Amino acid sequence: MNQIRIWWATSRGKVIATLLVLWLGVLVYRFDSTRVWIPLVALSSSIFFDLILSYMRKRQWAFTLSTTVTGLLIGLIVDPTSGVVPPIVAAAIAAVSKQVIGLGDHRHVFNPAAIGILGASYIFGVPVVWWGASWGIAPVFIIAVGMAYVLWKLRRVWMTGTFLLVYIFVTRSLSLTIDGTVFLFAFIMLPEPVTSPSGKIWRYGLGALVGVLVAVQSYFPVFHLDPLLLALLAANLIGFFFIRRPWAGQTLLKR
What we know:
By secondary structure, the chain is mainly α. The protein is 69% helix and 0% strand. Helix 6 (112-124) packs across helix 12. It starts with a helix and ends in an 11-residue tail after the last helix.
């Protein structure tokens, strides 16, 4: 019980709770066995690969709540009809991105779930369907209620808010913005603490930047990939080099 209280006290514990409620809601809304075991495959794969890579790097088994968040996101976004291989590959890519590419612990470049999902989508040619949040208006309330306090504590309310404002301007539609898919992206994936700088102007500017990149990808598609995830990864890269500013002489490959 003490461990559960500790987990709940962290922002990631509340994110996990929100994602679990979202998962339970979609099962109640429309039960399908694939919607049960595909997220379980993604979650277990995410934990497995993260443990293996952490042991290879540091000779110790390290489990973090962020790994659970990554696994749940993969399981709730990758097309559940595509089979077990895409979520497993997505989890592997996410773990490599988090454990290998960066400047040390908690200093990875890309949002792990985003790069894993987009990578698996590209490799297997399967769509990014966001199925865990695209079952009506209920996911909007679940995500907004579950994440409001978390965003406030992380000082990222305006990051999400500016993105939604730009997204409304781009789509010219309030109904397309107040959508479970957009809310899952804006409230949970965009403000991921490690890859979303929150200092000074970027507390507001990063969300606007991602919104602009979504518009660019939507109107002038270079890659036929999910515009939300592609915009987020592009912003991660820009933020890493121009906002977070890695120290000269450090390598992007963790040792």
